[in-house]
Design brief:
The chain is α+β, with helices and mostly antiparallel strands. Helix content is 30%, strand content 26%. The strands form 2 sheets. The protein has a 5-stranded antiparallel sheet with strand order 1-2-3-6-7. The chain has a two-stranded antiparallel sheet with strand order 4-5.
Length: 171
């Protein structure tokens, strides 16, 4: 099932999420719905608070061409970040059609729980590293616009308020 994606500003996008406990059918359904929602958008990542669920779960697939590589990360933790940084022009499904350069560590090692309850860890580089950091930020109530200066952030927020008013009028 495709779930609706919250648009900034929304208080749920500013809150820190709670860890996922037991991996129940509800958690498996959420992960499946989030992957479907991400591919439909389309996007390369999606975090649970973006669909209004305040749990530490994210999905991503940064393969643009070639066979899909869907990933589900439960309770992800960044164990190590490279000193080397990289700049990528980021977007966000909760801030449609707005893009800005964000500087982040070029590589990160992340550990998480998978849908079978097993511990996983992997070192991410390139777009995967940028995306996993963007998604973990969502779980901590942080958006990519929080890395921008106040004027640029305010300009984007005003555009999103206008978009939400227009969408509400359209019904
Ligand atoms: O978390 C999100 O809002 C999803 C976001 C992830 C992301 C994008 C860019 C850098 C870091 C994280 C998106 O997927 S925005 C859409 C997007 O980037 C895209 C859409 C279609 C094809 C390729 C990329
Ligand atoms: Zn985002």
């Amino acid at each position: 099932m495709i779930r609706s994606i919250l648009i900034h500003p929304d208080p749920r996008l500013k809150k820190r999420c709670e860890p996922v406990g037991e991996i129940t059918d509800e958690v498996r359904r959420l992960a499946a719905d989030m992957l479907e929602t991400m591919y439909d958008a389309p996007g390369i990542g999606l975090a649970a608070p973006q669909v209004g669920v305040m749990k530490r779960l994210l999905v991503m697939d940064c393969i643009k061409d070639g066979p899909a590589e869907p990933m589900v990360l439960i309770n992800p933790v960044v164990d190590w970040a490279s000193e080397d940084q990289t700049i990528y022009e980021e977007g966000c499904l909760s801030i449609p059609d707005q893009y800005a350069d964000v500087k982040r560590p070029a590589e990160v090692r992340v550990r998480w729980t998978d849908l079978e309850g097993a511990q996983q860890d992997r070192q991410f580089a390139g777009l995967w590293a940028t995306c996993v950091q963007h998604e973990i930020d969502h779980l901590d109530g942080k958006l990519f616009i929080d890395y921008l200066g106040p004027l640029k952030r305010q300009m984007i927020t005003r555009k999103m308020e206008k978009l939400k008013r227009e969408r509400a009028r359209e019904g």
